[in-house]
Design a protein that fits this description.
The chain is of the alpha/beta class. Helix content is 35%, strand content 13%. The chain is built from 14 helices and 15 strands. α1 (9-17) packs antiparallel against α14 (407-419) and α12 (325-343) runs parallel beside α14 (407-419).
Length: 426
Amino acid sequence: MSMNYEASLAYAQELDQVDTLYSFRTRFHFPQHQGKDVIYMCGNSLGLQPRSVEYLMQQELKDWAKHGVEGHFNAANPWFSYHHIFSDRLAKLVGAKKEEVVATNTLTVNLHLLMISFYRPEGNRYKIMMEAGAFPSDQYAVETQVRMHGYDPADAIIEIAPKPGKHIIEEEDILKAIEEAGDSLALVMFGGVNYYTGQYFNLQQITAAAHKVGAYAGYDLAHAAGNIPMQLHDWDVDFACWCSYKYLNSGPGGVGGIFVHEKHCSNPEIFRLGGWWGNDEKDRFKMRKGFVPQHNAGSWQMSNAPVFNMVAHNAALDIHDKAGMKALREKSELLTGYAEFLLKQVKHLSFEIITPSDPSRRGCQLSLLFADKGREVFDALTKNGVIADWREPNVIRIAPVPLYNTFEDVYRFYEILLSVNNIDAS
């Protein structure tokens, strides 16, 4: 998206005046610094708290006090079916049918449960492909799944890395590697957006390439859900999972989400671990042997819904749904583009933006790789009321989130960065 940006406060404020999403900022609590809202650029790590959470939590506390166990059926939002209230909104969020999604468990728990179903090595087909430098939890999950089946991770895991001297993995390298792995490949499992560089992978192309060689394709969408529009059903993705505490603003350790394509949901040949809440709902209280999975993504649930944990998710998804993914993405491209433009005006600090400059290959995160003094710059930003994110060994990640960040936020961040001087490298 081509824009003639200007590096001025007046220009940033003009953009805010015509921003149709500007008022959504008032729906969130901001941490304070010296009596003012911080410049919060860390929504890619933990989103802000919606103001409506407190009210909705009080409703559940009242229902618990009033009904006790009968709240499972008599609460304002009955706990027995509480997870169903998310289906329509999650489906719109990731481009799915409502039967293909469910809010349940947490991110890495879901990843393990889904890999148990979709990583079924046999004979020569036992390898998993993932991006090098994936989030550690993904690396641990893949490593231990491989070991569980008796394979050596050094042999069974194929990691795709950037070319020497580069930070971004080229799409053609991924597709070529899948083709070369051929019938040895059981599963392709990438992060939708790499947590460190902010690179968004072409999930549609990767999925098609995986299927062409007979492998499943699954994704960790922790940094993609609520950040980038997706069409998981139409792209024929086999499975995906995500957290809700980043761009979905549902609180620390918030409930995770699952997508399983409809072609697998009702397939009895797809093995899944059994749990009470994954069993056929109509037979749930018959208390008998024999796991009969639901014919939807809900069959990957384990225990009953953690309602208090889900209250924040309900509040946050309501806000997100009202804003709409299309409008959020349009603003995100402008807002991130403005941040990129301003950062390129900063000449006195030694860093490069390692996130792709093409808006179609990134979300709202920009990763700044510092040649030196990176930690000192980060500490100086913090002291001046900017909450960003530091990642070892030398990256500052910022995320101007379109749901609550403004163009003025981005400009104020730039002003503070310009004021960071005379840092002693020692």
